[in-house]
Design brief:
Structural class: alpha+beta
Number of helices: 5
CATH topology of the largest domain: Immunoglobulin-like
Strand order of the largest sheet: 1-2-3-4-5-8-7-6-9-10
Shape: elongated
Radius of gyration: 24 Å
CATH superfamily of the largest domain: Invasion associated locus B (IalB) protein
Strand content: 35-45%
Number of strands: 18
Largest sheet: 10 strands, antiparallel
CATH architecture of the largest domain: Sandwich
Distance between the termini: 27 Å
CATH class of the largest domain: Mainly Beta
Helix content: 10-25%
Length: 304
């Protein structure tokens, strides 16, 4: 996910996403939104015109990239980069090289406390190994970080609104006519069928802790590939809930617990087949979590 954010931000394209057209300039920093997060960036005067970009994903993860026209860092190569900020050291380890608009540099994931120090710090020292490669003054970062967080909050709201919009029609199949024949294309056969109640695949106890903490809800529509023995071989998301942790948990639970009677061709032979359904994730309304309700749409597992 971070890679997609970097690609959009380093191109400096403040294009609207999910209806969110966010662009601000605060304290000398430019703040823009992308599909999965927001970023604040500034180009410094001086040798090579260093550009610093601090990005924040909607899940709260942070990264910083630093590029310069004079640097020869190679895209994809790992570099030992650390940052000195407010008397603390951040980064270290393998930081991939990047290229952007003629500049070269690197990008580093950083821990959450970096954001606070970045907002209050006065200078940022950057090291390649033990060598200082840049010293940058930090001004206007407090108002820049405030704008960054405002952008992320608005983007979260847009994601949630989009997920609810999709959930409204999640029980309707994308193409009901595709189920007329089996996955082999042989008319007269049968599709795979679950051996047990699909409501047992997931319960409120399976609600991802991160999603509960961030109050994420939505519906994940998924497709399973079932082999001739009725064993699930693959799960893929065909319509996202808008939140990766919900989509990933959906497939993880399906792969773990789903069991099927295999599909059959017109001659009654077991064959590979596909099966589609959805899990609707609704935040638990009480503790301890209650069992899944029974008033969900047929073919949909409802978690709350």
């Amino acid at each position: 996910m971070i890679r997609s954010i970097i690609a959009a931000f380093l191109l400096c394209l403040p294009a609207p996403v999910l209806g969110l057209d966010f662009y601000e300039e605060r304290g000398g920093w430019s703040i823009v939104a992308s599909d999965d997060g927001c970023a604040m960036s500034m180009e410094y005067e001086g040798d090579g015109q260093t550009t610093v970009l601090l990005g924040k994903d909607i899940d709260g993860s942070l990264f910083i990239s630093v590029t310069n026209y004079n640097w020869s860092a190679k895209k994809g190569e790992a570099y030992d980069i650390t940052y000195s900020l407010n008397g603390k050291m951040y980064g270290g380890g393998k930081n991939p090289g990047i290229e952007s608009s003629g500049q070269r540099g690197f990008v580093s994931p950083v821990e959450n406390s970096f954001e606070r120090d970045f907002a209050t710090g006065r200078s940022l020292h950057i090291y390649l190994g033990d060598q200082v490669i840049d010293r940058l003054s930090l001004s206007g970062t407090a108002v820049g970080v405030a704008s960054l967080n405002r952008c992320v909050t608005l983007l979260k709201q847009e994601h949630a609104a989009e997920a609810k919009k999709k959930a409204k029609y999640a029980d309707l199949p994308n193409d009901p006519f595709s189920r007329v024949t089996t996955s082999s294309g042989t008319a007269g056969g049968t599709d795979p069928t679950p051996k047990k109640n699909t409501g047992l695949w997931a319960t409120s106890n399976d609600y991802p802790a991160e999603a509960i903490r961030e109050k994420h809800e939505g519906t994940t529509r998924f497709r399973l590939v079932i082999d001739a023995n009725g064993v699930v071989q693959k799960c893929e998301t065909i319509e996202t809930s808008g939140f990766p942790e919900l989509d990933e948990q959906t497939c993880a639970l399906a792969m773990l617990r789903a069991r099927f009677n295999p599909a059959r061709d017109s001659n009654g032979n077991n064959i590979e087949g596909v099966w589609e359904s959805a899990i609707r994730w609704e935040l638990p309304t009480s503790l301890p979590p209650r069992p899944a309700p029974t008033n969900c749409v047929v073919g949909e597992v409802c978690i709350r």
